[in-house]
Amino acid sequence: MLDNKSDQIAVYELSFEKPDEAKSKTPPDITDESLRAPLLAANAKWFCNLRWIVISILLAYEIFGQSESILSFLGLSAPGVWVLVTVLILTVENTFFLLYTRKVSDPAKTMANLWGQIVVDIMVLTAVIHFVGSLETAIAFTYLFHIVLACVFLTRIQSLIVTILAGTMYCGCVMSEHFLEILTPTTIFIHSSENLIKLSQPDVVVWKLFMTNGIWLVVWYLASRLSSMVRERDIELAETNRRLAAAQEERTRHMLTTTHELKSPFAAIHANAQLLVDGYCGELPDEAMNVAKKITSRCQRLTTEIQEMLQLANLSSSSQRKNKWTRLDCAVVLYWCISQVESIAREREITITTDIQPFTFAAVEDHLKMLFVNLIANAVRYSYPKGQVRVTSQVGPTGQVLVTISDQGIGIPADKLPKIFDEHYRTNEAVRHNKESSGLGLAIVKQVAQMHNIKIQVQSQLGRGTTFKLFMSEALKKNSCSWPGREG
């Protein structure tokens, strides 16, 4: 929890999802089939998982049915052989379809698998309805599970076929019991013979069949209509997302091109202004010298901003998947990064101390250097004059490395810690202390950390300094390494 009190240390941990290369690709054109196809396998597995629940319920009935007291309390008759036969059939069916689903990835075969499950389920369910009580109980409404699921997973026509199939099987079961007299009506509930006779009256049977099938058709219409509306909205949203992704990629390419084109003019302006400042074109009046120095300073700042914009755009680009990853000697990388900011540290009389245990880490070298340089440079820039910056690394017993970069500078307010990794974000304290920053450094750090699965924790105390802790997993400790003149 963040605390706004300046005398307490605030802690913030940067979190992000593991990078997914598929997100950086431009999605293909969206169609109803392209949305449904990836879901078929998941839906088929979902049916299998749901079937295990049904098997568990039947097994529970078989187990508790061995107790006469429980049966008497619930008003149930003893379970017949049909319970175990149904469990066996469902188990064999479920195992077959589950194995088939895992081995087959073709959409057409997966659809056939899904249809096979639906048809077999309805046939088995019809048998269960007969034994439980086709008219005496409300078990027939369990067909609605398959009807609603068909509306969600299949097209309207296909779900209508499932509804008609369920209605046909149920009507066939009832007619076989009460009209054709092929099957003997039965139920798991104990009731009077008068109730059985009343339910078996032809007008009652016809009326119940009519009402039941009518309810199923109404449920089918509503569920299929809502599913179609949701599916159409999904297609629209997916297509909009595809266009936004394509537009974003186009803007990124345009920005990269424009920024690259700006580098050369600014470099030329900076070089010529520097010549004027150095006196290669003769001595300048004081006012002209001040103007030339301002031009040089401004060009230097814009050059840095352009470089950071290019780095951030390149990191966000999908082309970064082609970067070469190597196992780096990170102690060498850290000392190189420190050398890049030593001139800034000398100007501000900042002392950089180190305690670095050698280790290796798989990374893109340029990107890892960007991360360390930005963090060390920030530590130097936001330290008070004659302050101290400390860079350390500790190798844990499991191979995880903790790299710490700490300063004794201005610190960061607790309520602003979650925003520091946003592009162009700078606290008021940072702006007053250093007006030259672009606010992109920590955004670059965030991108690199996400690409390399590096967890970052920030601890800061306003007016007393900030510490960045980098938790680098899958690092390996080196046996020995010496760094003359670098020990803290």
Q: Your description of this structure?
A:
The protein has 13 helices and 9 strands. By secondary structure, it is an alpha+beta fold. It has 3 domains: 165 residues, 2-Layer Sandwich (Heat Shock Protein 90), CATH 3.30.565; 170 residues; 66 residues. Strand 7 and strand 8 form a beta hairpin. The longest helix has 76 residues. It starts with 9 loop residues before the first strand and ends in an 11-residue tail after the last strand. The N terminus and C terminus are likely disordered.
Topology:
Elements: E1 10-14, H1 32-64, H2 68-74, H3 81-103, H4 107-132, H5 143-153, H6 156-178, H7 193-199, H8 202-277, H9 286-316, E2 326-329, H10 330-347, E3 351-356, E4 359-363, H11 365-381, E5 388-395, E6 401-407, H12 428-433, H13 441-451, E7 454-461, E8 465-472, E9 476-477
Helix pairs in contact: 1-3, 1-4, 3-4, 4-6, 5-6, 5-8, 6-8, 8-9, 9-13, 10-11, 11-13
